[in-house]
Design goal:
With 209 residues, the chain is an alpha/beta fold. It contains seven helices and six strands; from the N terminus they run E-E-H-H-H-E-H-E-H-E-H-E-H. A six-stranded mixed β-sheet has the order 2-1-3-6-4-5. The mean pLDDT is 93.
Length: 209
């Protein structure tokens, strides 16, 4: 499929690029997308939640009442979870929520996400650009020219460009990544995916393996 290349002013440069059918026009695999997004979100969790168990509660260790003859259930410690101020039974403990997925599945998920965006006409190809100095105003002007000032956007660079990255960092609705950092969640979370020309070769090379 061919897509017109735009400049940073949002105007057609008169050139077109061919997007690989193997990356941008496959039948999306929804389950692969689900698993990859689930893994990404799971990896964002700190997993540092913790509650005190009975062994960690400060309190007396004496038996609080005799074993038999009280007419109530036996109880050995005031720190038991059945009493107010006692430890929590089966409470949360620190853990890692991450899980593994094989590379082929993750690759399929990213191709599926890009194909979904391409099918929705939510992919724009932009000619390569840079800024002399990091300036949010400059990046905002690009967003405005592309009609993305009120939309979530994901800019994919072919190589690291610190000035472009720093110029976008203060903008909540826009994110800049290299083609090697592209993932399923970020693709689907954006209303518009803006691919710089230099990023296409890397994306297609990474996902066509």
């Amino acid at each position: 499929m061919k897509v017109a290349v735009l400049d940073i002013n949002g105007k057609d440069t008169g050139r077109k690029v061919e997007l690989s059918k193997d990356v941008f026009a496959i039948e999306p695999n929804n389950h692969a997308v689900y698993l990859d997004v689930k893994q990404y979100l799971a990896n964002q969790r700190q997993g540092t939640h913790k509650s005190k168990e009975r062994a960690e509660i400060a309190g007396s260790t004496r038996k609080i009442k005799k074993q038999k003859g009280t007419g109530t259930a036996r109880a050995g410690s005031i720190k038991s979870g059945v009493f107010k101020g006692g430890g929590r039974m089966f409470g949360p403990t620190p853990r890692n929520y991450g899980f593994k997925l094989n590379k082929n599945l993750k690759r399929l998920a990213r191709k599926s996400a890009l194909s979904i965006k391409a099918n929705e006409n939510s992919i724009v190809v932009l000619e390569d650009f840079s800024f002399d100095t990091p300036k949010t105003k400059s990046f905002t002007a690009v967003l405005k020219a592309l009609g993305l000032e009120d939309k979530k956007s994901l800019f994919v660079l072919g190589a690291s460009n610190n000035n472009v990255y720093l110029s976008s960092r203060n903008l909540k609705g826009s994110e800049v990544v290299n083609n090697s950092e592209l993932n399923t969640y970020k693709i689907l979370n954006a209303n518009q995916v803006v691919l710089l020309e230099s990023s296409l070769e890397g994306i297609e090379s990474n996902l066509s393996k």
